[in-house]
Design goal:
Rossmann fold; globular; four-stranded antiparallel β-sheet; alpha/beta; six-stranded mixed β-sheet; 219 residues; single chain
């Protein structure tokens, strides 16, 4: 599904070049459950952004499901992000004035999908929030907010879930509940890649890729 070949990513800060990834080669097959770990500044979030077609590498090749991403137009990149990848972030990124159902419906509004509300309700029920459909984020715990964010990511039934520090803002018990949801998604065939600096979170995954200074040091 994901094939990074000698990928590097450098950012410009004024006239200064900041290397974030350096000659990284990683392959992730369909159906895998992978943790990307490393200290702050190791390049793990940059790797996730490249894998999620949110950023382009400076050099090297990235193939998503066998297709060379460098050949994609901006429109094709948007289509891949909307149709094939679900994103979960540490900060949830929910609309605070909308209910859980409306938050989960949001990706479907852009795709022209049918049965939007029914699909949103089904996604929320799958993450254990049947009793929170009409609640707004401010009326829910952090763990429940993250479950809404996961429901929003899976409502399109993507092939790949990319999660950036999904338990970072949660207590340990809520974090364990979130990881169980990812485990269940993976058991059903979804490829799941999680960026985390927490070893206890990484150990839920079947494979751990460790980065240091923008390079893979363990797989």
């Amino acid at each position: 599904m994901i094939e990074l070949v000698h990928v590097s990513k450098t950012y410009l800060m004024g006239k200064v070049e900041i290397p974030a990834l350096s000659d990284v080669s990683v392959t992730i097959e369909e159906g895998e459950f992978v943790a990307i770990t490393g200290a702050s500044g190791s390049g793990k979030s940059t790797l996730l952004h490249v894998a999620g077609c949110l950023d382009r590498p400076t050099s090297g090749t990235y193939r998503f499901r066998g297709r060379d991403v460098s050949r994609f137009s901006d429109g094709e990149l948007t289509r891949v992000r909307n149709k094939e990848i679900g994103f979960v972030f540490q900060a949830f990124h929910l609309l605070w004035n909308e209910t859980a159902v409306r938050n989960v419906m949001l990706p479907l509004l852009y795709s022209g999908s049918n049965n939007k509300k029914e699909r949103a309700i089904a996604a929320l029920e799958s993450v254990g929030l049947k009793h929170r459909l009409s609640h707004k984020p401010g009326e829910m715990s952090g763990g429940e907010q993250q479950r809404v964010a996961i429901a929003r990511a899976i409502v399109k039934e993507p092939h790949l879930i990319l999660a950036d520090e999904p338990t970072g803002n949660l207590d340990s018990e809520s974090g364990q509940g979130i990881m169980k949801i990812f485990e269940e998604l993976n058991r059903k065939g979804t490829t799941v890649v999680i960026v985390t600096h927490e070893q206890v979170v990484a150990e839920h995954c079947r494979r751990i890729v460790r980065l240091r200074d923008g390079q893979t040091v363990e797989d």
